[in-house]
Amino acid sequence: MEQHPVPQHIASYEFRLIGDMTLKQFAQLAAGAILGLIIYALPMPGIFKWPLIVFFGFSGFAFAFLPFNERPLSNWVLSFFKAIFAPTQFIWAKTAQRPEIFEPISFKTATIKETPLKSDQEGLNQYLASLPFTEAKNPLDQQEESFLKEVTNLFQLAHPRVTPIQPQPSFQSAPLPPYRQRPQPTKPLVRPSQPKPQPVILPQKPGRPRKAAVEAKINPALLIPAPPTRPNIIVGMALDNEGKIVEGAILEIRNAQGLPVRALKTNRLGQFMIVTPLENGPYEIEVEKEGSHFDIIKIEAKGEIIKPIEIRAKG
């Protein structure tokens, strides 16, 4: 009987350097010799030097050529450190379970099996036949039935039936119906042009006399962070009679008809500025602040850049 070779693991093959000595064994032997030479070169007393040289030389030889129980010495050293640092005792601890009240509830949908009928009309007839028949009808049912009849009649009038014309037995033509004159189209009604709505001038509040307006004071030296670069933009500062800034003053800009077109409020530095430009024309600016009295300022927008204006309270 022919014997077959035992399969071997190809990856476990080690390269032989000299005879049966592998490259790994040569490296271990060389490492022991090098460590011995390093100890020999150190300036140490001989009583300590030679034992260390012998120890490292023998260790390199033992790691390379002295297996124990058919296992290399390096495996024993590795197993020794694993046994020391790896845990050898395992403690079982009970994990906390989540209460059932906090678990999500899953709803199962029941499938309803429908029994197919032979036809919709047949199923309707069976359903109507199963209903109890009563001679006396509810007044609400009578009103609903009459309403449905009216709707049915309306649909019949909206879609009349067309009956085909039967041919005459003889060649004589049937008498034509009397001629009906078509209605002449009527002329379209022309609506009279409505006058344009005029602006409504609101009356002044009773008991509040109208103040006299004064010309706006232009002051380019005011501390304005962003001077206007577009025409008809009003920007400026509100000051009291001592030249201090007035915070939170309310400004109302009115056009020539007295209608308010802008309303704004001064910031913490007493500055104010409108965002959208005004239309050309005269305007009035009225300032209100508790404890201060201001004159009504009049200014005219001419499509030009308006320099910063100063509004100062009266003393």
Explain the overall architecture.
- The chain has 315 residues and is an alpha+beta fold.
- Among the domains are: 12-84, no CATH class; 213-312, Immunoglobulin-like (Sandwich).
- It contains 5 helices and 11 strands; from the N terminus they run ββαααααβββββββββ.
- It has helices at residues 23-41, 46-65, 73-85, 120-130, 139-158, and strands at residues 16-18, 21-22, 213-215, 217-218, 235-239, 250-254, 260-265, 271-273, 281-288, 296-301, 309-312.
- A 5-stranded mixed beta sheet has the order 3-10-9-6-7, with no helix packed on it. Strands 4-11-5-8 form a 4-stranded mixed beta sheet, with no helix packed on it. A two-stranded antiparallel sheet has the order 1-2.
- Helix 1 (23-41) runs antiparallel to helix 2.
- The radius of gyration is 56 Å and the shape is flat.
- The mean pLDDT is 76.
Q: What's this, in brief?
A:
This protein has 315 residues and is an alpha+beta fold. The chain has helices at residues 23-41, 46-65, 73-85, 120-130, 139-158; strands spanning 16-18, 21-22, 213-215, 217-218, 235-239, 250-254, 260-265, 271-273, 281-288, 296-301, 309-312.
Structural class label: alpha+beta
Secondary-structure element string: EEHHHHHEEEEEEEEE
Low-confidence stretches: none
Percent of residues in helices: 25-40%
- The dominant shape is flat
Descriptive key words:
315 residues; alpha+beta; Immunoglobulin-like; five-stranded mixed beta sheet; four-stranded mixed beta sheet; 5 helices; 26% helix
